[in-house]
Design brief:
With 434 residues, the protein is α+β, with helices and mostly antiparallel strands. It has helices at residues 2-17, 26-29, 38-49, 59-65, 81-87, 142-147, 171-176, 186-192, 195-207, 213-216, 219-222, 231-242, 247-256, 265-271, 277-292, 299-320, 325-343, 351-360, 371-377, 381-393, 399-410, 413-419, and strands at 22-24, 54-57, 74-77, 91-94, 100-104, 109-114, 125-127, 133-136, 156-159, 164-167, 179-180, 210-211. It folds into three domains: 1-182, Beta Polymerase, domain 2; 185-266, Hydrophobic Seed Protein, CATH 1.10.110; 299-419, cca-adding enzyme, domain 2, CATH 1.10.3090. It has 22 helices and twelve strands. The protein is elongated, with a radius of gyration of 27 Å. It starts with a helix and ends in a 15-residue tail after the last helix. It binds adenosine-5'-triphosphate and magnesium ion.
Length: 434
């Protein structure tokens, strides 16, 4: 039985190593050219009319085939970046290592990439001592381009003119089976780029797919390779994961695959906070919900929630030691950010938002005189209020306070005046004791 299982895995590996084109016609893929954005359609047609191959590729095709709305549209073409520039007037080249062209329509940007070459021992490819590709910039054929993509469902090329899907690695079959399969030998592909392990988790959570056995198997043993990935790239990938609309599911799967401990400090922070656990879980649920409702989500807000409990602990400790409330809070914020900076790669540009959201929190407890009115006027009120709701939901703050603020915003001026809580008398000094 084990032998037959191994044979099956090997066969699957073989099947995945060599591209074999299947052209999927309109009646079996069910995609409509209308689903493609006007900009992506125009770019594709212009390139095709110029004598080049050009297709919509990657996430957009995958998402449309499973009935999800694509985030954006990417085009892959046989034209070189210079040739793309010549055909599409409003475009610019970005990226130095591997040039990509951004084609610009009035409200949309489409990324146009030239087919990339096969993975081979090539002068244009370099790896580090762990086998990670550090340079990879040769142009190639469409077959080679398909082979160097990560998952079979990400290697589908849609031609909106002929209305057909080009499928080199049985991606459509995997899509129907709701299965995520790595192209080629999974272990080798993870070695070349360990971030693919995180992508495997993100896509399987987002699409609700099972990972293929051979795709999943090497992850646990190879997890450590993530340690050699540049921090900024990891940060970008974790951010994508947190903003995927399926953050909670992703975190659960990372844990199941053994992909978090000591590899991803940002995730250790999420998973290893016994006190903040409920708060963070609620924050991620809230983020997921907002994304599914197509409401904006700010990374600064999200990081503010991830770091809130460390701030809160330090703040309380300082107050207990006799420091005054507000100065103690500001010191706690600065110290927490400083301590985290050494471990996490949260860029400094988010500091200002986080500090503002945190420092407004105590002001929700002041509900007398002019103070609530001033808070309402604060440019960051909305974010601070949403943050306060999460605190109340997780049981950290009395619900009476969060309900009060919800009502206070909704009623008119007179009712607001009536809602104010009586001014607390300044405490008399007790020094008169003899
Ligand atoms: P989404 O944008 O919805 O997160 P996507 O599939 O479009 O998903 P991108 O990161 O935008 O993902 O990449 C576009 C395409 O480029 C992918 O579909 C895949 O074919 C290829 N790709 C991206 N990153 C890698 C990688 N690390 N290794 C191999 N192929 C990749
Ligand atoms: Mg994409």
């Amino acid at each position: 039985m084990i032998a037959s299982f191994i044979k099956k895995v090997l066969r699957r590996g073989a099947r995945n190593a060599v591209p074999r084109l299947r052209i999927v016609p309109a009646e079996s893929h069910g995609l409509s050219p209308d689903a493609i954005s006007a900009c992506a359609t125009r770019v594709t047609k212009t390139l095709q009319n110029g004598g080049f191959k050009a297709y919509i590729v990657g996430g957009a095709v995958r998402d449309l085939l499973v009935g999800k709305e694509p985030k954006d549209f990417d085009v892959a073409t046989s034209a070189t970046p210079d040739q793309v520039r010549q055909l599409i007037r409003r475009s610019r080249v970005i990226g130095r290592r591997f040039q990509i062209v951004h084609a610009i329509c009035h409200d949309e940007v489409v990324e146009v990439t030239t087919f990339r070459g096969a993975n081979s021992e090539d002068a244009n490819q370099q790896t580090d001592e762990h086998g990670r590709l550090t340079r990879d910039n040769v142009f190639g054929t469409i077959e080679e381009d398909a082979a160097r993509r990560d998952f079979t469902v990400n290697a589908l090329y849609y031609d909106p003119v002929r209305n057909e899907v080009l499928d080199y690695f049985d991606g459509v079959a995997d899509l129907r089976a709701r299965r995520l399969t790595m192209i080629g030998d999974p272990a080798q592909r993870y070695r070349e780029d360990p971030v693919r392990m995180l992508r495997a988790v993100r896509f399987s959570a987002k699409l609700g797919f099972e990972m293929d056995t051979a795709t999943r198997a090497p992850i646990r043993d190879m997890a450590d390779l993530l340690l050699h990935v540049p921090e900024s790239r990891l940060f970008d990938e974790i951010l994508k994961l947190l903003l995927s609309g399926h953050a909670n599911a992703c975190i659960g799967r990372l844990r199941a695959e053994g992909l978090h401990h000591d590899l991803l400090p940002l995730l250790d922070l999420i998973l290893d906070q016994p006190q903040g656990e409920r708060f963070i879980r609620q924050s991620l649920e809230n983020t997921d919900r907002r994304i599914l409702e197509e409401k904006p989500v700010s990374p600064g807000f999200l990081f503010a929630t991830l770091l809130w409990h460390p701030v809160l602990d330090d703040w309380k400790r300082r107050q207990a030691a006799g420091e005054r409330s507000m100065p103690a809070l500001f010191t706690a914020m600065a110290e927490t950010l400083e301590a985290q900076r050494r471990k996490l790669a949260i860029p400094r540009r988010y500091d200002a938002v986080m500090k503002e959201i945190w420092s407004l929190q105590p002001r929700f407890e002041q509900r007398s005189g002019q103070r609530p009115f001033r808070l309402l006027e604060h440019p960051r009120f909305r974010a601070a209020y949403d943050f306060m709701l999460l605190r109340a939901d997780s049981g950290e703050l009395a619900e009476e306070i969060s309900d009060w603020w919800t009502d206070f915003q909704q009623v008119g001026q007179e009712e607001r005046e009536a809602m104010l809580v009586a001014e607390e008398r300044p405490r008399r000094s007790r020094r008169r004791r003899r």
